[in-house]
Amino acid sequence: MKLEIEWDSSDSSRRGLPYNRKASTIHGWVTKMRGTLLDNESVRRRGIREMKDAKAIREYKRKRAAERRARGQSSSLFSFGCFGGSSSRQRSKKHGSRPVMRRDTSSRSQSRKKSEEPFLHFPHRAKPPHHGHGTRVAGHITGNKVLVAKGRAMNEQAMEERERERQRRERQKRRDLHAMKQDLLSDECV
């Protein structure tokens, strides 16, 4: 069974009028995923291109803002110079005596070291329970039985891995409790 999806509007027109959508990373990603799921390479490429365009626009705006800030400081000094020498001298004195704000990262790291709570990130994390669902859904949408089987196998493998990891953590917890009990008993004997 092949599933056909018909989208409401095309990318190039809206209500019959020419319409150029502003490049968006999210819309590009959605378009790319639509192309991937429908196995349509041109739609997928269009989504990737839109994501690249959005990234280029963001970088351009960031550079432009930095240039404006740099120009804004120099142009404000120049504009003060037009009104007279005294105001420009006052400006430079104010600018020179302006305090510099810095973030103190050492206090954050010290507070983290002082905290009594244990660090709960385990050295190995199992795959999430939904691992493989995307592949399986893509297989159902496109009617590809190989993808369905692959997604199901990935999901089952992730579940087995999670169960092994859960058992390993339970064993570790029992060992830690036993060691704590032994320490308490040895402290009482002394």
Helix/strand/pairing category: mainly alpha
C-alpha-based Rg, rounded:
30 Å
Average pLDDT taken over every residue: 76
Shape: flat
The separation of the N and C termini measures: 76 Å
H/I helix tally: 6
Measured by DSSP, the beta-strand proportion falls in under 5%
Helix fraction, binned, reads over 70%
The succession of helices and strands, N to C, reads EEHHHHHH
Give the number of DSSP strands.
2
Number of domains: 2
Strand order of the largest sheet: 1-2
Major sheet details: 2 strands, antiparallel
Low confidence ranges: 84-93
Overview of the structural elements:
- Residues 159-168 have a biased composition (Basic and acidic residues).
- The structure is a single chain.
- The protein is mainly alpha-helical and 190 residues long.
- It has 2 domains: 11-88; 126-190, no CATH class.
- The protein has 6 helices and 2 strands; from the N terminus they run ββαααααα.
- The protein has helices at residues 25-37, 41-83, 85-96, 105-114, 133-142, 145-189; strands at 13-14, 17-18.
- The protein has a two-stranded antiparallel sheet with strand order 1-2.
- Strand 1 and strand 2 (17-18) form a beta hairpin.
- Helix 1 runs antiparallel to helix 2, helix 2 (41-83) packs across helix 3 (85-96) and helix 5 runs antiparallel to helix 6.
- The longest helix is centred in the last third of the chain and has 45 residues, at 145-189.
- The relative contact order is 0.06.
- Residues 84-93 have low confidence and may be disordered.
